[in-house]
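User: Second chain of the day. Same drill as before.
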Amino acid sequence: MADKEAQPEGITRKQFLIGSGAVVVTAVALGVAACTRKSSTTLDYQTTPFTLAPVTEVTSAGVIKHDPVKCVGCGTCVQMCSTYNGGEPGPLLSRTELISDPFEPQFTFNSCQQCASPLCYFACPKKDVALCIDPTTGTRYTNEKECIGCGKCIAACVYRPSRRKMNPEKNVAINCNLCRGRAEGPTCVQYCPFGALQLIPREQR
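Assistant: Same format as last time:
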């Protein structure tokens, strides 16, 4: 009798337990659904959304490797890159970046890593027209005449900071294309006075 009197009017103990269980199950189901929706949404690495493509390897290319032990941060690499590719010296026109450590005399050289599965390439709405792959060398490069400056390739880059950047004068995306078409190869490698940069052929990657 005491148990019966303690229950809310019109609800038996069995009904109460069944109702409570239903609430818990519903809450768990909603939580799982929310997590599922969140994990399936399009990723946004910066401010420009893009849809991830399946991981697919394409023709391989060479890549520039940096030796931080030999590098003194002179900036010759950046100046030569911008002069050859942008027509004038300046870090904003360079397709590479030289970043200094504020606490240590160390420097990091950032350039396009010519990824085996380049998400920038798959994210480009004008793939093979604006963002292309050289059929001979495998180099990933931008056809600036066709680029619309949407920035999706920059956002899709897996590296931070992005190895692709926007040319502020032309409003087109640019990246290190290994000085494509230059007989001597990348200018940064050729003119580095300390031999801190080296072009690794695609056959050796």
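The radius of gyration is 27 Å.

User: Great, on to the next one.
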